[in-house]
Design goal:
Oligomer: single chain
Number of helices: 9
Strand content: 5-15%
Largest sheet: 5 strands, parallel
Strand order of the largest sheet: 2-3-1-4-7
Number of domains: 1
CATH class: Alpha Beta
CATH superfamily: P-loop containing nucleotide triphosphate hydrolases
Structural class: alpha/beta
Bound molecules: adenosine-5'-diphosphate, adenosine monophosphate
């Protein structure tokens, strides 16, 4: 089964994808996490992607398609978080999957008002070591700014600062939102109210997956 999580930055896609991978064994592929790791290590991919990420722009489609081709597992169930983000990326994904006799099964659209998106992004903290996600108000670590899992000091992503957030939301509306119609036309779009607590959203997600026959 291949799931795509679609929705604005900060809607909770990564949080829910992590839960789904821990609970149900989905392979969680976050293109944002892969790119940030590449930037941190200074790989050729990281060097090309850095300036786009810092400005809140999208990394060019050819780079992203090549990246996903490399990391997509052959048979396992996958949740794609942050990819595709443009119609050409979605079309490239379809071509790539059809060669393997696979397809995107369901697309969950995470719906959250802009004010809440901004609130979630401004309080987001991430662990640079293990990738754990926190929010200073909604999901705080036990000890201030310290990761519960591995004890590393938590960081605020550079692109979660206010000016960049504004651009990311603009880019989402221009380039990524058209995917809603693209997937609706295919009859595989499911809208998910992303405004409840982490647990409420997850219960809903699982219920829908079970109802639709996982
Ligand atoms: P995305 O992957 O869509 O960009 P994240 O999963 O990183 O979003 O979540 C953004 C921020 O909001 C994080 O700080 C996360 O801890 C917090 N968050 C995620 N889901 C919820 C929720 N249901 N309620 C409150 N805060 C949430
Ligand atoms: P995310 O962690 O999903 O919020 O992604 C962080 C940043 O990585 C984005 O703002 C983009 O610059 C880049 N990025 C991640 N996924 C993609 C993608 N599929 N296409 C283009 N750029 C991406």
């Amino acid at each position: 089964m291949i799931l795509v999580f679609l929705g604005p930055p900060g809607a909770g896609k990564g949080t829910q994808a992590k839960k789904l991978s821990e609970d149900m064994g989905f392979v969680h592929i976050s293109t944002g996490d892969i790119l940030r790791e590449a930037v941190r290590k200074g790989t050729p991919l990281g060097k090309r992607a850095k300036e786009f990420i810092e400005k809140g722009e999208l990394v060019p489609d050819d780079i992203m398609v090549a990246l996903i081709e490399e990391v997509l597992p052959e048979e396992k169930s996958v949740v794609l978080d942050g990819f595709p983000r443009t119609v050409p990326q979605a079309e490239a994904l379809e071509r790539m999957l059809s060669k393997k006799g696979r397809k995107v099964d369901k697309v969950f659209l995470f719906e959250l008002p802009d004010e809440e998106v901004v609130m979630r992004l401004s309080g987001r903290r991430t662990c640079p070591e293990c990738g754990a996600l926190y929010h200073i108000k909604f999901n705080p670590p036990k000890e201030d700014e310290i990761c519960d899992n591995c004890g590393a000091k938590l960081l605020q992503r550079e692109d979660d600062k206010e000016e960049v957030v504004k651009n990311r939301l603009k880019v989402y509306k221009e380039k990524t939102a058209p995917l809603v119609d693209h997937y609706r036309a295919k009859g595989i779009l499911i809208t998910l109210d992303a405004s409840g607590s982490v647990e409420e959203v997850y219960e809903n997600l699982k219920r829908i997956l079970n109802e639709e026959g996982n």
